[in-house]
Please model this.
Amino acid sequence: MRRVIYTTNAVESVNSQFRRVTKNKRVFPNDTAVFKTLYLTINYMTRKWTNAIQNWSEAMAHFLIKFESRIQ
Model:
């Protein structure tokens, strides 16, 4: 269950991608250029996110037991 809900690695991966892109180009002409760069980075990253979450059904069974009143 911990592997499924532990998202620190995924968040850090996204942050490192953003840092890598913005570090290479130190000066942006305007705010729109920054947003466009980050948007294109997100599009590039999401192409790689095709894998399903491993052991999701097992984790969902644990969630149903532990949080029965919250999950419908």
Summary: The chain has four helices and no strands. The chain has a mean pLDDT of 81. The radius of gyration is 18 Å. Helices lie at 2-5, 8-24, 31-48, 56-66.
